[in-house]
Design goal:
Layout (H helix, E strand, L loop, with lengths): L8 H24 L2 E14 L12 E8 L4 E9 L5 E9 L5 E3 L3 E4 L3 E9 L9 E12 L2
Parallel strand pairs: 1-2
Antiparallel strand pairs: 1-8, 3-7, 4-6, 4-8, 5-7
Length: about 140
């Protein structure tokens, strides 16, 4: 018959204390830092070897149209949030266009009931293939700690 070791009550007490502290820490953390909202904007561009720059002004998205190698194309969008407290804004890009996109600001505090202009820059390098590139701009609003 196998011999079973008795678990000491102190071990159970330590485990229960650890669980309670973990739950309390998580609750406090989430009450101060919560993702409020996430917005997405479609973005696209066609890399071309032509010397002309083409535009596409579709509403609801950022389109750079046809853009040659080495040309800096610029588009702007506005970030606003109508809450009575400041929020942290993080902006990132996903998709095959992401290596060629940068922003004037990508991580900042937006004051209550305000709007911020964000410039979006596109430059295709010589290594970029001649094709259409697409992606999404992800704008995350979080409570400021």
């Amino acid at each position: 018959m196998p011999i079973r070791k008795k678990v000491k009550p102190l071990h159970w007490l330590m485990l229960a204390g650890f669980v309670i502290i973990s739950i309390a820490f998580t609750t406090v953390l989430y009450s101060f830092y919560v993702v409020e909202e996430i917005k997405e904007i479609n973005v696209s561009a066609s890399h071309t070897n032509a010397s002309m720059l083409g535009f596409n002004l579709d509403p609801g998205q950022i389109s750079f149209g046809s853009t040659p190698t080495g040309v800096l194309a610029d588009r702007a969008f506005f970030v606003s949030y109508d809450k009575n407290y400041p929020v942290r804004v993080k902006i990132r890009i996903v998709g095959d266009i992401s290596p060629y996109i940068s922003f004037s600001k990508h991580d900042f505090i937006l004051q209550p009931n305000s709007t911020e202009k964000i410039n979006t820059y596109l430059t295709f390098t010589k290594k970029a293939l001649i094709k259409r590139y697409e992606g999404k701009i992800i704008i995350q609003f979080s409570k400021n700690i």
